[in-house]
Amino acid sequence: MDNYLLSLKNHLRVMAALIELEFRRLMHDRNEIYLRGAQPILWLVLFGSVLGSLRAIPTGNIPYIDFIMPGVLIQSTTSVAIFFGLMMIWERETGILKKLVASPAPRMAIVMGRSFAAGARALSQAIFIIPLAMLIGVKIIPNPLYFLLALLIIFLSAGGFAGLSIIIASFLKSRERFMGLGQIIILPLFFASNSLYPLESMPYALQLFARINPMTYMVSAVRGLLVSGDTSLLLTDIAAILIFDAIIFTIASRTFKRIVE
User: Fold this and answer.
1) DSSP characters for 184-227?
2) For residue 142, what are the contacts with CB-CB under 8 A and spacing of at least 6?
3) What is the pLDDT of residues 38-61, one digit of tens each?
4) 89 and 169 in contact (C-beta within 8 Å)?
5) What angle do CA 40, 135, 186 make, to 5 degrees?
6) Cβ neighbours of residue 122 closer than 8 Å, sequence gap 6 or more
7) What's the CA gap between 11 and 13, in Å, rounded?
8) CB 67, CB 51: distance < 8 Å
9) pTM of the entire structure?
10) What are phi and psi of 14, to 5 degrees?
């Protein structure tokens, strides 16, 4: 029992150190947050306003721009996470990653620490985007508990996609190849989820894919907490996100060493 607690404490210490390092980086350079925040706002202003005026997509009593805000938010924050692998490739080229792998830190702790460091960056992105969305008319449920829980879900979701980026970086050791594959992964998951339209509006085959698409559950959870107030599927959504993270972190911890080889 004592060995288990000591191992857990060591894992948490390594993860906390890596997350703190990312916060320090954010404090010194906030430009990326502002630049990345422009794209989701354009999605809401242009795409949301145009399709919302057409009333072609059934969203119940929720205005269309409100309906797509959680999906656009998740797409933006997971994009930050999926491209976190670029930093891993850069650290491999500079020798930083080799020193980290050679350290006595547990590999799973390094993977989770790096992944949740991306989650911290995604959180800063979300905190920047949500107030801007409110300024252009998106109505957010005024419940502090719901808001904090939504941020936690964004943090966990981004961590899972950052873990996926580590797996990709383990096999694609070129930054150019990585950038191309990153877009290929994020955009299909975004469009084949409930981000822009309800699942019921999709063709049956696409609905089946959406059911196994992790982004569907991430968007569903955040939409229920921030916009619709429907939290009936929240536990299912959170369970799906945790299962996704667990699978990704397990695979990433096994492939992580390939990055420095």
Assistant:
1) HHHHHHHHTTTSSS-GGGS-HHHHHHHHH-HHHHHHHHHHIIII
2) none
3) 677 777 877 777 666 666 677 778
4) yes
5) 15
6) 77, 78, 80, 81, 154, 155, 157, 158
7) 5
8) no
9) 0.86
10) -65, -45
Burial of 174 (0-12, 13-18, 19+ CB in 10 A): exposed
Helix (H) or strand (E) holding 139: none
**Residues belonging to the chain:** 261
- For the record, the structure tokens of 149 come out as 């829980």
Structure tokens at 130: 């949500």
Alpha-carbon gap, residue 151 to 35, rounded angstroms: 20
Phi and psi at residue 59, in whole multiples of 5°? Answer: -125, 20
CA dist 46 and 17 (Å) reads 40
Could you count the other beta carbons within 10 Å of the beta carbon of residue 150? 24
Residue 125's CB is within 10 A of a number of other CB atoms, namely: 25
Which pair of structure tokens corresponds to residue 40?
Answer: 């989701």
Q: Three-state SS for 4?
A: helix
Q: What is the CA radius of gyration of the chain?
A: 19
pLDDT value of position 213: 94
Query: For residues 158 and 36, what is the distance between their CA atoms, to the nearest angstrom?
Result: 15
Euclidean distance between CA atoms 85 and 161, whole angstroms: 10
For the chain, what is the mean pLDDT?
81
Helix residue ranges per DSSP H, the chain: 2-28, 31-42, 49-54, 64-82, 84-94, 96-102, 107-135, 144-171, 175-191, 204-212, 214-223, 234-255
